[in-house]
Amino acid sequence: MLFRSMAGEPRAVAKMASDEYRRIWSSRVDTPGDLVIASLTGDFSQQTWENVGRVLQTAAHAIQPGGAIVIDSDVAERPGPSLGRLAGMESSPEVERELMRDRFPDSWAALCLSRALANGPVYFRSQLRSEAVESLGMVALKTEEELSRLISGSRRCIVLEGAQRLLLHVP
User: Fold this and answer.
1) pTM of the model
2) Burial class (CB in 10 A: 0-12, 13-18, 19+), 93
3) Distance in angstroms (rounded) separating the CA atoms of residues 93 and 68
4) Cβ distance 2 to 35 under 8 Å?
5) Cα(82)–Cα(153) distance, integer angstroms
6) I need a labelling partner for 121 at 20 to 30 A (CA). Which of 39, 41, 70, 88 fits?
7) Residues 103-160: pLDDT tens digits?
């Protein structure tokens, strides 16, 4: 890992840190894909629903309307109350309004998932049971063969490594 020490007036240091983050994590996608494979990287402390929300938000910038998103993660955390609200429901403006009023740790991730599902299918590889994933409207991915079939059937596949940290620039 690369570390850089910064010192000085707090606002100046915050700006330097922000500029450095943008330099390291910025990426450009010139043409959206019909399949985006977005990995959630890091140890167990990074495998959270909040980071799933970040991954979905990043992938949304790289996907064509109606395209599929694959989240490759090791999430084992059970869905919270807001995600539970999605169980068995279709995404709608009413559901989104309810999620925006929620104040649970998973509320933002549930809102991002609702919006992603309104655009197209979301496939999710995680440590969760398939039933739990599918109850949220996603498709559980368990094998490399399933992922290979998705890739083979796509016209333009985009891979986003460490998607929870990326800052995508799309023309």
Assistant:
1) 0.84
2) exposed
3) 21
4) no
5) 33
6) 41
7) 888 999 999 999 999 999 999 999 999 999 999 999 999 999 999 999 999 999 999 9
